[in-house]
Amino acid sequence: MYFMDKFVLATKKDYSFKTITAVSGNVCVRDFVPEAPIHSGATYQWYKDGVEIPGATSEIYSVPGKDDAQGNYVVDINYSNFCLNSLPFSVIFSELNKFTLGQDFFLCDTTALTLDAGLPTAVSYLWEDGSTNASLRVNKSGSYWVQVTDVNGCTKKDSINVTIQNCDACRLFIPSAFTPNNDGLNDVFKTKPQCPNTGLLNFALRVYNRWGATCFHDY
Predict the structure, then answer these.
(1) DSSP string across 192-205
(2) Residue 121 contacts residue 95 (beta carbons within 8 Å)
(3) pLDDT beyond 70 at 213
(4) pTM tops 0.85, yes or no
(5) Of 114-118, 130-134, 188-192, minimum mean pLDDT range
(6) Rounded distance, CA 120 to CA 204, Å?
(7) Most exposed: 29, 35, 76, 124, by fewest CB within 10 Å?
(8) Domains recognised in the chain with CATH numbers
(9) Strands 155-164 and 105-107: what pairing?
(10) 122-127 β-sheet, strand order
(11) Strand locations in the chain (E)
(12) Positive or negative torsion for Cα 129, 130, 131, 134
């Protein structure tokens, strides 16, 4: 069995087609726009990790700013009977795009809280008090921030609010009556904590009639 094929030797100047450059591209903010060498009459087809990208037939391609868009991009260029495949153009995104200290904290005692800013690709940390560890222990209310720098030179600053108060000293206001007749006034039986941000983990309600019999209960 025999197979036949043909190939064309291109002159040195044609090898400029092999290199993809970036019109814009920033690992920190995900705005990669790679560009193939522009030549009148050429046709283009882009690929990501060896898979053809539908509709990507221009000399430039805007990479989506999504995690799964990371990978190696190449472009096939057809020009005057030459078909050239570019060198891979690698696209990566900084993990700092997803970094956060989390939601604000509310604590009912003075037990120290550890704020963790640890990131596998981080190279340095700077907290508002000047400390440079990956984590910070706090034991009082306040706003705390950290600036993280990763291996790509990207930086991101995030902050969090911590509130600490003695919940045992907070009273809970409970109504003595309510009128569930759908008139828009006092239809819902609910409690109101004296201290802000205090919530209820458990709640049980029993309603008795005048003879002491349970006519409603909710747990």
Answers:
(1) EESSTT---S---E
(2) yes
(3) yes
(4) no
(5) 188-192
(6) 45
(7) 124
(8) 12-91 (2.60.40.10), 96-164 (2.60.40.10), 170-219 (no CATH)
(9) parallel
(10) 105-107, 155-164, 142-150, 122-127
(11) 21-24, 33-35, 43-48, 51-52, 71-79, 82-85, 89-91, 105-107, 113-116, 122-127, 135-138, 142-150, 155-164, 172-173, 192-193, 205-208, 214-218
(12) positive
Average pLDDT over the chain, rounded to whole? 84
For the ranges 36-40, 71-75, 160-164, 190-194, which has the lowest average pLDDT?
190-194
User: How much is the average pLDDT of 20-39?
Assistant: 86
Written as one letter, the residue type at 160 is I
| Residue showing tokens 């430039």 | 60
Alpha carbon distance 73, 56 (integer Å): 11
Tell me the C-alpha distance between 48 and 121, whole Å.
Answer: 24
CB 148 within 8 A of CB 117: yes
Residue whose structure tokens are 């043909």: 6
**Bridge partners, 82 (sequence order):** 79
* Cβ burial, residue 156 (10 Å; 0-12/13-18/19+): buried
Q: Which helix (H) or strand (E) holds 119?
A: none
